[in-house]
Amino acid sequence: MNARDRILARVRAAVEGAPEAPPVVRDYLVSHTPDDPAAVLDLLHENLVDYRARVHRTDEAGIGALVAGLLAARGAGSVLVPRGLPPEWLAEAACAHVQDRVESTAAELDAVTSVVTGCALAIAETGTLVLDGGPAQGRRRITLVPDHHICVVRVPDQIVASVPQAMARLDPGRPLTWISGPSATSDIELDRVEGVHGPRTLDVVLLSP
After folding, report:
1. What is the extent of the structural domain holding 105?
2. What is the DSSP string of 69-124?
3. Which of 95, 106, 193, 204 has the highest CB neighbour count under 10 A?
4. Given pLDDT bands bounded at 50, 70 and 90, which one contains residue 195?
């Protein structure tokens, strides 16, 4: 008998005859936000800003110019384009378009200035964006290596108020990436450093029809 078997045997002996665990009570509130799409949108905007994301609102007619302006302001020489990204989002961008490829190395991704993606959901109460690798989102690595991420959220279809509401709509079998603001950390003296394990700058575009 190896060490693992001995440990498991002791666990089984310790719980032998123990009563069944009681059922989990799930009578908590699913959301703390009024069921008002405008209020949910405003809360998302507020919490995204609180996490130091830069938030912009536009519609289908204005998204091309907005994204082009964000890339130009960043001085982007290139932008990474995931498969399925609506072409109108980058129709006015003057920088080079780099397609997301399986063969791309970390060094090649690091040489790209910015990345534009969609998302799966945005959670208002936590100011969180969720990506699941679906259309317009690409592989997880493309949102972790470039220093600038522009994420487009469709309003109101991709916004939920709370995490429980998000979990009900997400597929746990997909590669979920949860983003709350730019990548950041702080040391023991609480000096904040951004761009540690992901983009230093996060622009969120709230896209209305």
Report:
1. 34-208
2. HHHHHHT-SEEEE-TT--GGGGTT--SEEEE--TT--HHHHHT--EEEE--SEEET
3. 204
4. low
The answer on pLDDT for 87 being more than 70 is: yes
Query: The tokens of 125 are what?
Result: 């109460």
- What CATH number is given to the structural domain containing 181? 3.40.50.10420
Q: Which two tokens stand for residue 162?
A: 């709370």
Backbone φ and ψ for 21, nearest 5 degrees, come out as -65, 140
Query: Per the domain annotation, does 193 fall within a domain?
Result: yes
pLDDT tens for residues 108-167? 999 999 999 999 999 999 999 999 999 999 999 999 999 999 999 999 999 999 999 999
Q: Which residues pair with 184 in a beta bridge?
A: 194
Adjacent-strand bridge partners of 57: 206
- Please tell me the distance from the alpha carbon of residue 123 to that of residue 121, in angstroms, as a whole number: 7
Structural domain tally of the chain? 1
CB neighbours of 34 closer than 8 A, spacing ≥ 6?
40
Kindly state whether residue 148 falls inside one of the protein's structural domains. yes
Choose among 88, 80, 32, 39: nearest CA to 63.
88
Residue 124 to residue 8: CA distance in whole angstroms? 43
In order, the DSSP letters of 10-27 are HHHHHHTTPPPPPPPP--
